[in-house]
Design brief:
Two copies of one chain form a homodimer. Chain A is mainly alpha-helical and 299 residues long. The first copy, chain A, is built from 15 helices and two strands. The first copy, chain A, has one domain: Farnesyl Diphosphate Synthase, CATH 1.10.600. Chain A has a two-stranded antiparallel sheet with strand order 1-2.
C-alpha cells in the first residue's frame, strides 16, 4: 500500500479503490434475482461517493496501532449504511432531490417504492456484513454492530433526519437544537466510523474513545462544510442542487451564523480533532490531513 | 409460566404479554427525544399484533430443548423487524393502505417521511438488540444477526416485496414465481424466527435445520391463509381493507388456484411441518398446535 508520505490525495484514492473493490466483490451481482433490486442497490452504492466514512474507518484502525485490512468489513458496512440514508433522504416525501453526485437520484430512476426497498436492503446488508465479522478482544463480539446500530438509529442518523424535517417546518431554530441535529444526523456516523476502525483493530477502549472524540469533531465540521458548500457552490461543482437549504428554510450553520463564522467554527473543530490524535500509538498523519481536507474541500 | 396443557390460546396470550412487556421496557420512551419519532415507532409496534414470529421463536427455543427466556432478545428483534416491514409495505408508493390492525396506518397518522423513518429506526433497533445478545456455542456469536439480516434483505423480505410489486404490474404470474415471492416475503422471516429460537437456546445445528424446515412450511401456509382471508373476510374481522389483492391484480394463491385448492395446500404444508417436529428433544405440542392455528385463524 502507498504510505502517507505520498500525500493524502493518493492515499485516499488508493483506499477508495480498495473499498470499491471489496464492495463490488461482496454485494449481490446485478444479475442475481431479484435483479431489479440488486441493480438499484448497486446504482446508488457505485455513484461516485468519496468514501469518507470507510476511509476514516480504515485509517482509524491504523492510527490505533492495528492493520487497515482488519477494518474492511466495518468500512463496507458504513458505506452501505451511508448510501441507504442518502437514498431515503432524497425521497419525494423527505428532501425531494432529483440529483445526487451528478446523477438522477434513485427514486427518479427506479421509482419511489423500489428506491425505498433498495435503501432498506442496503441497511440490512450492512448488518449482515457485521454479523460475519465479530469484534476481536477486548471488545464484546457484537461491538461493531452495536456501534453502527446506535449511530444509525432513532438517536442517530434516523433521529437527526426526523428532527431536521421537523425543524424545516418551523421558523427559527435555536443553536443548541441545530447542533443536536448535526450530531445525530452526521457526526454520530462519522464518530462511529472512527470507533469501529479502532474496535476492529482490537485497540484498547481508551483509543476507541479518542478516535470517537476525533470523529465527533470532524463530523460536526463536515456538516458545517456541507452547509457552506450548499450555500456557495455551483450545481456542476457539487453534483446536486445548490441553494436548496435556504429555499427550504432548512436549519443550517450558515443560516444561523453566516459563512465566515461557520468557516471559523469548522476550523476550530478540526484543530480540536487533530489535538486528540496525539494520544494514539499508530500513525496519525493521514487522519490529521483528512480532517483538514474535510473542511477545505470544494465538493 | 402456563404449561401447554392449558391450551394454545392461553399460552399464546401469556407469551404475547411477555413479549409486549419486554418490548415496552426495551424501546425508547415516548418522551425521550426525538419524542415524535419514538411515538411513531411505538404506535406501530403496539398496534395489537398477534406476535406470531416472537411466539414461534420462544416456542422453538423450548422445542429445541432450551429455555424460552434465552430467546427473548431475538423474539423482540423479530417483531421490530416485522413491524418495520408493515410500515413500509403500507406506504402510498407501495400498497397504499390506510388501515392496519383496525387503526390508521403510520403514514396516515405521522406523515409519509416520518413513517419511513420510524420503519428505518425499528429495523436498526432490531439489529441493536441482537448486537447485545451474542449467540451461545456451538454457534458463531453473530449467528442471530446473520439469520435476521439474510431473512430480511434483498433475498428475503425486501426482495419479496420488490418482486411482489413487480408482479402486480404484470398480468399472470407463474406458480413458481408466486411461491418464490411467498418464500422471500413471508416464509423467510418465519423460518428465521424458528431457527433463531433454536440458536438462542444453543441447540445443535440439526435442530436448527429441523426448526427452519418447520418454519418455512408454516410460513408458506401462513401466507396462503393470509391470501384466503383477504379474499373472504370482512374489514371488521381483519382490521384492514379486504378484497384489495384482487382489485390490485395482486399475485396470490387464491387468484391462481382458487380458495379450495389453496386451503388444501395450506393444510398439506401444516402436516409436513408437524411431521418434522418429531426429530426434536424438547416439547413440541405447542408448535404443532400453532401450525394448525395459523391456517385455521379467522383474522
Amino acid at each position: 500500500m502507498t504510505s502517507a508520505g505520498d500525500g493524502l490525495p493518493a492515499l485516499m484514492s488508493e483506499l477508495r479503490a480498495a473499498v470499491d473493490r471489496a464492495l463490488d466483490a461482496r454485494m449481490p451481482a446485478e444479475t442475481a434475482p431479484p435483479a431489479g433490486l440488486h441493480r438499484a442497490m448497486r446504482y446508488s452504492v457505485f455513484a461516485g461517493g468519496k468514501r469518507i466514512r470507510p476511509i476514516l474507518c480504515l485509517l482509524s484502525a491504523e492510527a490505533a496501532g492495528g492493520d487497515r485490512g482488519a477494518a474492511m468489513a466495518p468500512a463496507m458496512a458504513l458505506e452501505l449504511l451511508h448510501t441507504y440514508t442518502l437514498i431515503h433522504d432524497d425521497l419525494p416525501s423527505m428532501d425531494n432531490d432529483d440529483l445526487r453526485r451528478g446523477r438522477p437520484t434513485a427514486h427518479r430512476v427506479f421509482g419511489e417504492a423500489n428506491a425505498i426497498l433498495s435503501g432498506d436492503a442496503l441497511l440490512t446488508l450492512a448488518f449482515e456484513l457485521l454479523a460475519e465479522a465479530p469484534a476481536p478482544p477486548p471488545h464484546p463480539s457484537g461491538a461493531l454492530s452495536l456501534e453502527l446500530a446506535r449511530a444509525a438509529g432513532s438517536r442517530g442518523v434516523a433521529g437527526g433526519q426526523f428532527e431536521d424535517l421537523a425543524a424545516e417546518a418551523q421558523s427559527g431554530v435555536a443553536p443548541e437544537r441545530l447542533e443536536r441535529i448535526h450530531r445525530w444526523k452526521t457526526a454520530s456516523l462519522i464518530a462511529a466510523a472512527c470507533r469501529m476502525g479502532a474496535i476492529a483493530a482490537g485497540a484498547p477502549p481508551e483509543s476507541v474513545a479518542i478516535l470517537g472524540g476525533y470523529g465527533e469533531a470532524v463530523g460536526l465540521a463536515f456538516q458545517i462544510a456541507d452547509d457552506i458548500l450548499n450555500a456557495v457552490s455551483s450545481p456542476e461543482q457539487l453534483g446536486k442542487a445548490v441553494g436548496s437549504d435556504a429555499r427550504r428554510g432548512k436549519a443550517t450553520y450558515v443560516a444561523l451564523f453566516g459563512i465566515e463564522a461557520s468557516r471559523e467554527r469548522a476550523r476550530t473543530l478540526v484543530a480540536e480533532a487533530a489535538a486528540l490524535l496525539k494520544g494514539l500509538s499508530g500513525p496519525t498523519a493521514p487522519l490529521r490531513e483528512l480532517a483538514h481536507f474535510i473542511v477545505e474541500r470544494d465538493r
